[in-house]
Design brief:
Elements (H helix, E strand, L loop, with lengths): L1 H24 L17 H13 L2 H4 L13 E4 L2 E4 L16 H10 L14 H4 L4 H12 L21 H10 L13 H11 L5 H4 L17 E3 L2 E3 L14 H10 L1 E2 L3 E2 L4 H8 L4 H15 L4 H12 L10 E3 L2 E2 L9 H10 L1 H4 L16 H4 L4 H9 L21 H15 L8 H11 L2 H4 L20
Antiparallel strand pairs: 1-2, 3-4, 5-6, 7-8
Length: 467
């Protein structure tokens, strides 16, 4: 009898829990509207929305290779399956043309679309929830004055039960905290602006924070480094691997220009971020830099001393192994871990990286590079194999790729030489596996992330504010 009562109680509790979850998960639809006329939006509001959309990198995720800007269809691989970005042009049938401002604001704040369906967190509403109503209004004005494009994205490829939208409500219950950004009273206006942009629209943590098994950012590891599209997103907290500590000025230059003389060149998924930040006022990059520099904190004495030593050596850096003829070479700057890696470096790298020509047109001094000190060799492998394509529509750093000239074992030998020669860190663990993985998995679509994103405005004069 007691067992029957226990079963009944458990069923009742389970039923009530299920009803409570369904009540939490159900969201009503918001009525469709007739697409608003572009001329009805204040041009100043649209221009402000253009800057905000650039900071949020909306064009990057919502534009498929070869497709119309904002028309969606970009495949976003996740550990759980492939999600395709949506059409956010004002097309009334396949885009957001029938979305009211309230519907748009709910998608940003709560991660729910106009029909009441939960959005997958590949759309980073866990960050966008911080955006103010005023800025959402500007973003809405900007998107609703874009060219309408009729384009239906491919269906998502997700296994059961992840293909059921209601399941996303469970993820939200565990990991999503809704609410607009609240300014820190003990910080100044620039810091708060930077925190608002970096944590909100800029969603820096989406790449630079590690994730748990369910794909949520680890709250106790904020900015501790992550992975994005086969690239390492380096830590932006005190664990930063940068051999020369970042400053507000150097971060500002890097964010705005896509390179910095003593730190390196933006690459991978960071490249389109820089391209977009290059199109907005520098004050926004400086605000973000102010906030990020504060999360890194003051470097300890050892890091400060190492950075000072590297800067002091700026004009006296010796060239690497230079192979003049068979059996003839000069001494390397430090003993190489193996002669083969040193010879490859001399033939393929030294003429640029040891020539002393400053960025953006010379090669970075590799003992200044975070990549040499990073936790994985993913970024050096990507750059060695596929280079740095020229930025679209503007001048900037370039580097040829060596995927056709170097075998996997050559890249491994080169990595060993680079790590031992240009850092004080232990060898990377088994880089051969990662070299093979990157060479095998790199697709034409992924290669786009090596350079700046198409559709990312090169400068403010090229960014539209109407159509």
């Amino acid at each position: 009898m007691r067992f029957v009562r226990l079963v009944v109680v458990l069923l009742l509790v389970g039923g009530l829990g299920l009803l409570g979850f369904l009540a939490y998960a159900w969201k009503p639809a918001i009525a469709a509207i007739d697409p608003p006329a572009p001329a009805g939006f204040d041009p100043d509001l649209v221009r402000r929305g253009a800057d905000l959309a650039a900071i949020g990198n909306c064009n990057v995720c919502h534009t498929a290779p070869g497709g119309e800007i904002f028309a969606g269809g970009l495949a976003l691989p996740t550990p759980f399956g492939t999600i395709h970005s949506t059409n956010i042009t004002p097309d009334p049938d396949t885009g957001i043309g029938r979305w009211s401002e309230a519907a748009f604001g709910r998608s940003m704040r709560s991660g729910v679309d106009r029909e009441g369906r939960h959005l997958y967190p590949a759309f980073p509403y866990d960050h966008f929830t911080l955006v103010t109503d005023e800025d959402n209004r500007a973003l809405y004005a900007y998107l609703m004055t874009r060219k309408p494009v009729r384009a239906e994205p491919p269906a998502n490829a997700l296994p059961f039960p992840l293909n059921i939208r209601m399941a996303v409500a469970g993820w939200k219950l565990l990991f999503f905290r809704e609410g607009v950004y609240e300014a820190a009273a003990d910080k100044d206006e620039v810091w708060n602006r930077g925190a608002y942009l970096a944590e909100g629209l800029g969603h820096c943590g989406a790449c630079h924070t590690p994730r748990n098994a369910l794909g949520a950012e680890k709250r106790d590891s904020h900015f501790a480094g992550g992975e994005a599209e086969g690239w390492t997103a380096y830590a932006l907290n005190p664990q930063s691997p940068a051999p020369i500590p970042w400053t507000v000025d150097s971060l500002t230059h890097y964010l705005k220009q896509g390179w910095e003389q003593r730190h390196g060149v933006a690459r991978g998924p960071m490249a389109p971020v820089n391209a977009n930040l290059g199109a907005v006022p520098e004050a926004e990059s400086r605000a973000i830099a102010t906030y990020v520099a504060s999360t890194m904190g003051e470097p300890d004495p050892a890091r400060t001393r190492r950075g000072a030593d590297l800067l002091a050596e700026e004009t006296s850096h010796a060239p690497g192994v230079l192979v003049a003829s068979a059996g003839s070479q000069t001494a390397p700057p430090s003993p190489p871990p193996n002669e083969r890696g040193a010879a490859i470096y001399a033939a393929a790298c030294s003429s640029c990286h040891d020539a002393g020509r400053p960025l953006p047109y010379g090669g970075l001094r590799l003992d200044h590079s975070s990549a040499m000190y990073g936790p994985t060799p993913a970024n050096p492998i990507n750059v060695i194999l596929y280079g740095l394509p020229a930025p679209e529509g503007e001048s900037g750093p370039i580097m040829p790729g060596f995927s056709g000239a170097l075998r996997n074992e050559d890249v491994v030998d080169l990595l060993a030489y680079l790590r031992a020669t240009f850092s004080d860190q232990p060898p990377w663990s088994d880089p051969a596996v990662l070299v093979e993985e990157i060479r095998t998995n790199r697709t034409e679509t992924e290669l786009r992330s090596l350079g700046t994103a198409s559709n990312a405005p090169a400068n403010p004069s090229k960014r539209e504010t109407g159509w």
